[in-house]
UniProtKB/TrEMBL annotation:
<feature type="transmembrane region" description="Helical">
    <location>
        <begin position="107"/>
        <end position="128"/>
    </location>
</feature>
<protein>
    <recommendedName>
        <fullName>Riboflavin transporter</fullName>
    </recommendedName>
</protein>
<comment type="function">
    <text>Probably a riboflavin-binding protein that interacts with the energy-coupling factor (ECF) ABC-transporter complex.</text>
</comment>
<dbReference type="InterPro" id="IPR025720">
    <property type="entry name" value="RibU"/>
</dbReference>
<keyword id="KW-0813">Transport</keyword>
<dbReference type="Pfam" id="PF12822">
    <property type="entry name" value="ECF_trnsprt"/>
</dbReference>
<keyword id="KW-0812">Transmembrane</keyword>
<feature type="transmembrane region" description="Helical">
    <location>
        <begin position="160"/>
        <end position="184"/>
    </location>
</feature>
<feature type="transmembrane region" description="Helical">
    <location>
        <begin position="74"/>
        <end position="95"/>
    </location>
</feature>
<dbReference type="InterPro" id="IPR024529">
    <property type="entry name" value="ECF_trnsprt_substrate-spec"/>
</dbReference>
<comment type="similarity">
    <text>Belongs to the prokaryotic riboflavin transporter (P-RFT) (TC 2.A.87) family.</text>
</comment>
<feature type="transmembrane region" description="Helical">
    <location>
        <begin position="42"/>
        <end position="62"/>
    </location>
</feature>
<feature type="transmembrane region" description="Helical">
    <location>
        <begin position="12"/>
        <end position="35"/>
    </location>
</feature>
<keyword id="KW-0472">Membrane</keyword>
<keyword id="KW-1133">Transmembrane helix</keyword>
<keyword id="KW-1003">Cell membrane</keyword>
Length: 192
């Protein structure tokens, strides 16, 4: 049984690692310039697997809290990252709790990827893109134009969701899952 101090320390270390990884964004070809890949969910999912869903959620929250001090999106990007990241980490952690082996991890990461992708589509359509338009005065036409520059199938907000948001989140989920599968068992003894 771990102490409260050990639990808190592990979360703090993983959240710090996640915040550093969040700052290292990479552009993804065929995607709008503002959709950038980062690997900050890896420490969160590792923490969620080792310490439970709440720990994963806290890691995602803390990394975004750290990142918001340097925001260019009035906090909307960090809010989006928190909600979407949580939709990846929490379902994956719950699935992994029932089968803590490689197959269980694969099913957990698959569940997390699909949950994240679905929720990213819903949240972007109903909440996040309208917030960008209202708060940052970033017109839908500009988002569509940025999307169309990378993918000619993007012609409106719905096709932006289908051809940018969904593929981006599927890609991110696959990449994060693959790296997690490679490193989790090596890091697991340190976290336990």
């Amino acid at each position: 049984m771990q102490t409260k101090m050990a639990y808190t320390t592990r979360i703090a270390v993983l959240a710090s690692a996640a915040a550093i990884l969040m700052a290292m964004e990479l552009p993804v070809i065929f995607m709008p310039g503002f959709l950038k890949l980062d690997f900050s969910e890896i420490p969160a999912i590792i923490g969620a697997f080792a310490l439970g869903p709440l720990a994963g959620c806290l890691i995602v929250f803390i990394k975004n809290l750290i990142h918001v001090s340097n925001t260019q999106t009035a906090g909307i990007g960090e809010m989006a990252n928190f909600f979407v990241g949580t939709c990846f980490v929490v379902p994956a952690a719950f699935v992994y709790q029932y089968k803590k082996n490689r197959a269980g991890a694969m099913w957990a990461l698959l569940a997390g990827t699909f949950s994240m992708t679905l929720m990213a589509a819903v949240l972007n359509y109903w909440v996040l893109l309208p917030l960008y338009q209202k708060v940052l005065h970033f017109p839908a036409e500009a988002m569509i134009a940025m999307g169309k520059a990378g993918n000619p199938f993007i012609v409106d907000i719905k096709t932006f969701i289908v051809f940018a948001i969904i593929p981006f989140n599927l890609f991110k989920g696959i990449v994060v899952s693959a790296i997690t599968l490679l490193v989790y068992k090596k890091l697991s003894p340190i976290l336990h």
